[in-house]
Design brief:
Distance between the termini: 48 Å
Order of helices and strands: EHEEHEHHEHEHEEHEEEH
Helix content: 25-40%
Strand order of the largest sheet: 7-4-6-5-10-11
Oligomer: single chain
Number of helices: 8
Largest sheet: 6 strands, mixed
């Protein structure tokens, strides 16, 4: 399959939404890096993501267009709600207890899901056009650096997706910070643009879980 490369505009929103609706894969710009996306509620589409990345079974994160969409798939504690209020839209992925609507294929059977609202206007419009939720894993083969441009993503996965949307270089150029809130204490899973010290300040201000 030879993917189609198009500019990020209104036409791209319509075209991408159609690909996602029929179970296809797209590559799109976000605030962090370029994402590989599909309908997270479609197990067959999710399987295509694993095949494209060539990775073992590791849960896929989901991007949402707003808090209402986040609450469709995840349970938010007081701390999660406060962190979302402070850092979303932005480069913080929260690992939260999942809701049953998500297929096991997406979470690899785990009772949690990583979710965030990206700080990128076009990405939010795109996610909304695709139904409010979109898989948001980085558009690279497993073990390779995440792509910061559409061209880098094309070179990585160009033959595995139907559509690549070029929105210019990703503003941050590094993956999001990932914080797990499913255990007794918050746990940093990946360093990213938002530092742990800034996260802890918010948590301490809430006064525990």
């Amino acid at each position: 399959m030879l993917s189609k490369l198009i500019k990020a505009d209104r036409g791209a929103l319509r075209e991408a939404a159609e690909v996602v609706r029929r179970g296809g894969l797209i590559i799109y710009p976000t605030d962090t890096v370029y994402g590989l996306g599909c309908d997270p509620l479609n197990p067959e589409a999710v399987e295509k993501v694993f095949q494209a990345k060539g990775r073992g079974r590791k849960p896929l994160p989901v991007l949402a267009s707003d808090m209402e969409d986040v609450e469709r798939i995840a349970e938010l504690s007081g701390i999660a709600s406060r962190l979302a209020e402070v850092f979303w839209p932005g480069p913080l992925t929260l690992v939260l207890p999942r809701k049953p609507v998500l297929p096991d294929a997406l979470t690899c059977g785990l009772p949690s899901v990583g979710v965030r609202i990206p700080g990128h206007d076009f990405a939010i419009e795109l996610i909304r056009a695709c139904g409010g939720l979109l898989v948001g894993t980085s558009a690279n083969k497993s073990g390779r650096p995440p792509p910061r441009t559409a061209q880098e993503a094309l070179e990585e996965l160009g033959e595995m997706v139907e559509l690549i949307i070029d929105g210019g270089p990703a503003p941050l150029g590094v993956p999001s910070t990932v914080l797990d809130l499913t255990g007794p204490e918050p746990r940093l899973l990946r360093e990213g643009p938002i530092g742990l010290s800034d996260i802890l300040k918010v948590i301490e201000a809430v006064g525990g879980r």
